[in-house]
Each structure stands twice: as C-alpha cells, then as structure tokens.
Amino acid sequence: QVQVAESGGGLVQAGGSLRLSCAASGRTFTIDAMGWFRQAPGNEREFVAAITWSSGNTHYGDSVKGRFTISRDNTKNTMFLQMNSLKPEDTAVYYCAADRRFRLVTSTRSDDYDYWGQGTQVTVSS
C-alpha cells in the first residue's frame, strides 16, 4: 500500500502564488507516476498535472499550462505543485494521487490512479 498526503493549501489573492506538497509513504517503489487533481463545488474532478516518478516527464491540463509547475524530489518521496498567477477559478480542493501502472504517457483520468490523499483547500479571492 501507498499513502499520500497533501499540504500547503490556503487563501491567496488573485495573481498570487501557492506551493502544494504531497508526501508519499509505504511501498513507494511501486509508484510509476503521481498527479494533481482538483474539484470545485458542483464540478467534476479535473486533471491538473502529472509527473512520471523515474524520468520526471510532466503533463499539464490546459487550464494551468504556463502557470503551474509540477516537480518531485525522489529522495524525499515528495511531489510539489507550484501555482503562480492564481485566478479565482483555481479555487478548489486539490488532491494528490499515485498511479502504480507503467504507462507510456501519464494518465489524465482520475480512475487510473490508485491512491489518493484527503485533499487540501485552495481559495483564490478576487
């Protein structure tokens, strides 16, 4: 089993920045990729970004390209999401997830991820 836990959410004004962290523990050697998803009230869970654990290849959702940066520190089993130029529409609960399966391209589908954190709230005020 793998456990993942997010931290770093909060309240920020539009145009500001936040950095989210996701710490993985347990059988972390089974992780192939990790990703960030978000869900606002009344909306479906949305893909934000993903990173392949070994190679560091990244993939972003269209709504965050150029503003968010995903990265990882393999030595600490931790993934990060640097969020810049935040907009009110970025307000959501942000979830960290881990995928065990090898894929040629990291998945954008939440159903493909095996382990999930509890989520951290990000609120962007206008």
How do you describe this structure in short?
With 126 residues, the chain is mainly β. It contains no helices and 11 strands.
Characterization of this structure:
The protein is an all-beta fold. The protein is built from no helices and eleven strands. The chain has strands spanning 2-7, 10-13, 18-26, 33-39, 46-52, 58-60, 68-73, 78-83, 92-99, 115-116, 120-125. The strands form two sheets. Strands 2, 4, 5, 6, 9, 10 and 11 form a seven-stranded mixed beta sheet that branches. It has a four-stranded antiparallel beta sheet with strand order 1-3-8-7, with no helix packed on it. The mean pLDDT is 96.
Summary keywords:
single chain, seven-stranded mixed β-sheet, 126 residues
Low-confidence stretches: none
Compressed to H and E, one letter per element, the order equals: EEEEEEEEEEE
What's the gyration radius in Å?
13 Å
Shape: globular
Oligomer: single chain
Strand residue content: over 45%
User: Could you estimate the helical fraction of the residues in percent?
Assistant: under 10%
